Amino acid sequence: MAKYIGAIDLGTTSNRFIIFNQNGHIVGVDQKEHEQIFPQPGWVEHNPMEIWQNTQVVIQGCLNKSGIIGDDIAAIGIANQRETTVLWDKISGKPFYNAVVWQCTRTDNICSELAEQYGQDGFRDKTGLPIATYFSGPKIQWILDNVKGARRAAEDGDALFGTIETWIIWWLTGGPQGGAHVTDVTNASRTMLMNLTTLQWDEEILEILNIPKQILPRIVPSIDDETWGHTKTDGPFKTKIPVCGALGDQQAALVGQACFTTGDAKNTYGTGCFLLLNTGNRPVKSRHGLITTVGYQVRGQDPVYCLEGSIAIAGALVQWLRDNLGLISSAPEIEDLARTVDDSGDIYIVPAFSGLFAPYWRSDARGVIVGITHFVNKNHIARAALEASAYQTRDIVEAMNKDSGVTLNRLKVDGGMVGNDLLMQFQSDILNVPVIRPRITETTALGAAYAAGLAVGFWSDFNALSQNWSVDKIWEPVMTTEKREKGWLGWKKAVEKTFGWVEK
């Protein structure tokens, strides 16, 4: 009997392959970054072939380092950067264009025209989403309208669309030689093309965006005992392994954090920052700038829905300070700098590099640093950069409390930034709730592993997964109310300064 589950974590900046045992512990891991392509301000792209090649590299690297062989792995699950859009030729497997990344704002004109005609919330009743550059549908339209040969191929039935998990599943299971063309409901719910109630592609929206239905993948449950396909014997696994679990990365973290009860919430601090609240088997419409999304679905069961607050730039701000400004040489150094000062020196950084996502949805916003005086030095900038993620999270929590009618009383956290104790303490202070870090913080990959493992019976049920979850550390709020609210007032003023920078 196979002893392990494999998870492919297709992130915004890197790919990872992680192998987990029955207890949800990591027994092997490998990681490789891919290029971030910025053709012009606000545009973000990835090379899809590089992502596929790197996926094969990290699978092989993980197997080599761990000594585990493909026959030891019961199933493969996938978590992925969501909304990022690929269109490719189904005969050759060659992309028509680079992947248009979720952060990219090139569809601003498309979205502005849609919002003018239908209202920014014109599709919200069906999709749970506002009209915004964030989502895949407008990105598909942009590729079809602007890339030579793409629309003709789509209309002739020779083109396929997918978010990143669809692209990798297709290659893993055969590519041009019969690869499975599927997307799970969580990723489909981020396209602005899926009806949240029927869990099917919406014909009316497809017609409005002029997207041929035949390019779209089949929508499947996140946890599916009807295997979509198997890895190939000539691939890195050298054997046939079922591919049967997939989740958008933030929904994967929700599952990895064992947020299976209505009212459970988690926040992931990665490239962006994403807070999801489990709302049970009914979609809750947001009136305060959040989005309604599918959390996960088991085949044969009703889907579980979530309210989500999406923040475009969190860890990416630290990366910007490292790569663009040279303020630090490695990401962990930011905490060392920030600890040398008692506060941010009354400056705020609002990292609206590609506009603001929830709860503002302002594509016309751009980043600002405000409140600068002669007193401020690089240490204050480092601290303000960390505090920006915490303040943006409070924006989301305020909206979520209003939408759900339930006040958040604790926050589970995960992602690359949760090893930063200074940030986690400030997050607890600014929210005035306990912040809880689990013992296993690779919750995105773990959630993907859980999806695949449940599908093949490696784990029996959600109770078994909950038993794997344990606390590593809890931060309790210590900040005075006066200081908390003063800082919050300054943040709100800073956010207002970002609005209207890009002229329509």
Main traits of this protein?
single chain, 504 residues, alpha+beta, seven-stranded mixed beta sheet, six-stranded mixed beta sheet, globular
Descriptive account of the structure:
It is a single chain. This protein has 504 residues and is of the alpha+beta class. It has 16 helices and 23 strands. The protein has a seven-stranded mixed beta sheet. Strands 3-2-1-5-14-13 form a six-stranded mixed beta sheet, sandwiched between helices. The model has no long low-confidence stretch (mean pLDDT 92).
Give the DSSP E fraction (strand runs of 2 or more residues). Answer: 15-25%
The first-to-last residue Cα distance is 60 Å
The number of helical runs is 16
How do the strands of the widest beta sheet line up side by side? 17-18-16-15-21-22-23
On the 0-100 scale, what is the average pLDDT?
92
What overall form do the CA principal axes indicate?
Answer: globular
Tell me the major beta sheet: 7 strands, mixed
Question: Structural class of the helices, strands and pairings?
Answer: alpha+beta
Indicate the low-confidence ranges by residue numbers: none
Helix content: 25-40%
Number of strands: 23
Mind telling me the C-alpha Rg? 22 Å
